[in-house]
Structure formats: structure tokens, C-alpha cells
Amino acid sequence: MKITVIGCGYVGLVTAAGLAEAGHWVTGVDRDSLKINKLRHQEAPFYEKDLEPLLRRHLKTGRLTFTTSLALGVANAQIIFIAVGTPALSDGSVDLSQIETVAAQIGPQLHGYTVIVNKSTVPVGTTRRLETIIAQHTCRPVPFDVVSNPEFLREGNAVYDFINPDRIVIGTDSPQARRIMEELYRPFLKKKVPLIQTNPETAELIKYASNAFLATKISFINEIAELCEAVGADLPTVARGMGLDHRIGPEFLSAGPGYGGSCFPKDTKALIHLARSYGKQLSIVEATDAVNTRIQKAMLAKIIRILGPPAGKTIAVYGLAFKANTDDLRESPALSIIEGLLQAGARIRVHDPKALAAGRKVLGDKVTYCADEYTAAQDASAVVITTEWEQYRRLDLDLLKTKMAQAIIIDLRNLLTPEQVRAHGFLYEGIGRGSKQKVG
Ligand code: UDX
């Protein structure tokens, strides 16, 4: 099928490359000419595992092309995906200006029946609103449908998630649009991926409710971690014991410095805002959001409690990205920890395998950027692990110790085994690791 994806950000680009891989002919459109130039030269504008090889392959097969011209991109497309940014406004509501502008631009370009699919995370009711905007901007009466088709990709695993989705959600009242969407996703449906066909409102809410539920799991386990420290229990073992109950499941039970990223903080707030606008209160989601803010602040207090006053000390921070396998810094807990430590007078040396360049744009010359963990640890009074990069599990602890002024590791991701680290002569603190006894 001929498909156009408007917006070559993280969601749009993975969708475009994934649909090309599924056998479709895809045009990616973005108003940012620098980005389009990079893409034409087979370069992803951000780091995402496995994305570049996919881009390269389908730029070669010709299944994937890129343009800055919306008119060109949209011409003859059977399906137009909208995947532009929907940032948060200060009151927690969602800024829909980009998506509305794109809808208005699509209108005049429609000539025959077209399915317009919204991939951006938007408040309930937006799909129908887009329908009205597009209809107002067509040159003559032309048939089209707008479908809600939320995405559930995780950054860092996005290509895998696109190719192996847990479910496909299609929200539309139009039987014709449903049939076309089924044809689009046939390669996935053949693999028995569950399909949910529903109305646009339900589809839109599935996305928000899923993200809010996952965020709730994280805030829940972060509070249990605090209790573990108080009562002398071991959080990873508690989480494992909980997760083996198949009704709970093992995932999203890793305690840490609070959730970040472009989705959970924004989407929980947007859902709270949406509910309030209907006179409803989502107290659990509100608590999830409040706990996350509190946990992030508590991390700084924890570091200071272990280390003493940071003024004049050098601290090595391992990880800038909000999670592993991405260079995305949006709402990264590492950033608020670094800012707090800088304000308290510490010198910061940072390492991140992928996000140093992105870090420079945000932190400028306030911190020292280091190419490896051991350089970052030079003269440090503590190493603070903020992102769960796999390589931090395999630190050469003896070498690390020779570099540091004080042998302290504060592991905010529970990557290391306390007994092992302590056996190397370190003072070690994880999250929720209250047990003084050996655990297995
Ligand atoms: C999330 C959803 O998982 C995805 O389905 C949706 O499409 C977009 O939002 P993403 O933001 O990429 O994806 O990252 P995710 O892996 O979900 O992690 C979000 C945050 O939660 C990160 O800061 C991560 O470190 C944190 N997290 C995750 C925990 O602290 N503990 C966990 O157990 C899991």
C-alpha cells in the first residue's frame, strides 16, 4: 500500500521504517529540512537501537523516501499517518496546535478516499475533532475517514516493539477504514497479533490508561522500596516474589529514581487533566504523579545523606538518558539529580554511552563529559548510577576504586550485587536494599 507518515520524530520514523519492512511503500514527511537531509543520507536523527539498518535497507529498496513537502508526500497516499508532537502545556493539558495545523494542511490535498490515521497521543475526542478540521479545509467534498491507532513503542526497543506488537488498536466507526487498516496490518495479523477494533474514544483512552497503569506500577514499587529500606527487606526479592504471580507479572517492578521520558510524566498529567475536565478525579493516577515527583527529589536527599555535604566534592554520574538504549534526555531523573548536586556545590563528571552529545546541549559546560566510566570516576567521592545501561553491570570494581577519592557507589538502578561491591571495599547503597543479610 502507499503510505505517508507526517512527522519524522521518534514515533513517525519507527512507524515509517516498520511499515516499509512490512512491505509497504512509505513516504516520510517532515518540515525540518536538516532532519530530512540526514535521513536521505541514511542517518537517523536520534539514536534508536536497530533503526539505522532498517532505514538503510529500505532507502535502498526504494520502499522508503523522505520529503519536506507535505503536498508531494500526501499525493496519492492511501493512508496518511499523523505522528507529530503533542507537548504538554503548563496546566498539564496537551498542546494540539501541531496536529491541528497538519490536519488543516492535509484537507486541501485530498482528492479521493483517504484514511488519515492519528498515531500521536491525544486526549479523548481529538480524532473526531481532526475529522471536522480536515473537512473544513478540503477544496471540494471528498470522502475520508480519521482513525485512532495508538502506538505502544518503548524507546530503545521501538523497532522490536513495532515488529512484535502485543496488540493493534484501531479506533473508527467506519467499516471502510477498518477494512483498509486490516489490510495495512495484514502481515502482523497473520502472526496472530490481537486486534482491537473499537470506536475512536476507546482507542484514545486505551493508550492513556495503559501508560498511566504502567506508571502506577513504577510509583507503587518505588514506595515499596522506601518501605524495604525502613523494615530491612530486599526490594528486588520482594519484586520477584510479587512478579511470579501471573496476575501481577514481573515487568515494571524495578525500583529506581522515578520514571522519566516523553510519555509517562506527560501522559499521566494529561489524563488527570482530561478527567477533571469531565468532573472526574483519578486519585490513583494523581498519587502516581505525586509519588514520582517526591521520589525524584528523595534521590538527591539520599545521595547527600550517604555522601555528606557535596560542596567541593567530585561526583561521577553514570547515565544521562532517562533509560537505557536511548539518547533521550526528556524528563530524565539524572538531570534533576545533577542540577541539585551542582546547586549544592559539587563538581560533576558524567558518562553515558549514547547521550553525551545530547547532554552537552542541556548542561553546557556545567559538568565534565567523560568517554568512559573510569575517567568519569577520577577523584570522585562517589559514583551515582542513574541509568540502567548494561555496561554498568560489568564495572571493573578494582580499577574503579583506584581512580576514586572515596569508594562509594550509589546505585539508583539496582544494577549491582551489594555483597559483591562491598567485598571490593566499597560503601554500597541501592534502592530498597534494606536487608543486611545475604539474599539469593
Ligand atoms: C513508555 C511505554 O512503555 C510505551 O508503551 C509508550 O508507547 C511510551 O511510553 P518509554 O517512555 O519509551 O515507553 O519507556 P519505558 O521503558 O516505559 O520507561 C519509562 C520510564 O519508567 C523510564 O524512566 C524507566 O527508567 C522507568 N521505569 C520503567 C522504571 O523506573 N521501572 C520499571 O520497572 C520500568
Automatic annotation (TrEMBL):
Biological process, per Gene Ontology: polysaccharide biosynthetic process; UDP-glucuronate biosynthetic process
Keywords of the record:
NAD, Oxidoreductase
- Name its pathway: Nucleotide-sugar biosynthesis; UDP-alpha-D-glucuronate biosynthesis; UDP-alpha-D-glucuronate from UDP-alpha-D-glucose: step 1/1
Coiled-coil region(s): none
Catalytic residues, chain numbering: 263
What this protein catalyses is: UDP-alpha-D-glucose + 2 NAD(+) + H2O = UDP-alpha-D-glucuronate + 2 NADH + 3 H(+)
Residues noted as binding NAD(+) in the record, renumbered to the chain: 30, 35, 86, 121, 155, 266, 330
A single GO molecular function term of this UniProt record: NAD binding
The UDP-glucose/GDP-mannose dehydrogenase C-terminal domain covers 316-418
Tell me the NCBIfam families matching this sequence: NDP-sugDHase
Q: Which family does it belong to?
A: Belongs to the UDP-glucose/GDP-mannose dehydrogenase family.
What is the designated name of this protein?
A: UDP-glucose 6-dehydrogenase
What species does this protein belong to?
A: Capillibacterium thermochitinicola
